[in-house]
Design brief:
Blueprint (H helix, E strand, L loop, with lengths): L3 H13 L1 H10 L5 H15 L7 H14 L6 H11 L3 H14 L2 H18 L4
Helix pairs in contact: 1-2, 1-3, 4-5, 4-6, 5-7, 6-7
Length: 126
């Protein structure tokens, strides 16, 4: 069995970037270390490290699910990650258009607003 933590940390760094992961690691405490370990092993070491579907597709799924469930706080982080996963702004828009039809226009509208703001901060011209 692979070391899920080490694999997870490598995948997490690839997708989110060193600066994000370094900040998360520097600010964790004894209180949230078990949570950070769980997401590194589970989300990043198992799910995101699986090559059944591409990182591009995982980005689109993740952004769709975040928007559909109203978990908007993590959308900018995952928009920034698209620079590493290969999901284009057009891919992201299509994902959010699916959210509009299947989960609600207000959720998609807010997600698109966050995406536009984040892309602007990234210097991505839309």
């Amino acid at each position: 069995m692979p070391d899920r933590f080490a694999q997870g940390m490598a995948t997490r760094r690839y997708v989110l970037g060193d600066a994000h992961v370094d900040h998360a690691e520097a600010t964790k405490s004894s209180f949230d270390t078990p949570f950070q370990t769980m997401i590194t092993e589970g989300a990043w070491g198992t799910l995101w490290s699986d090559d059944t579907i591409s990182k591009r597709e995982r980005s689109m799924l993740t952004l769709s699910l975040l928007a559909a469930t109203g978990n908007f706080e993590e959308i900018p982080m995952h928009i920034r990650a698209t620079a590493n996963t290969g999901a284009s702004p057009q891919d992201v828009l299509q994902a959010f258009m699916h959210v509009a039809i299947y989960a609600g226009v207000p959720k998609a509208n807010h997600a698109i607003k966050l995406a536009k703001q984040t892309y602007k901060e990234m210097g991505v011209e839309l």
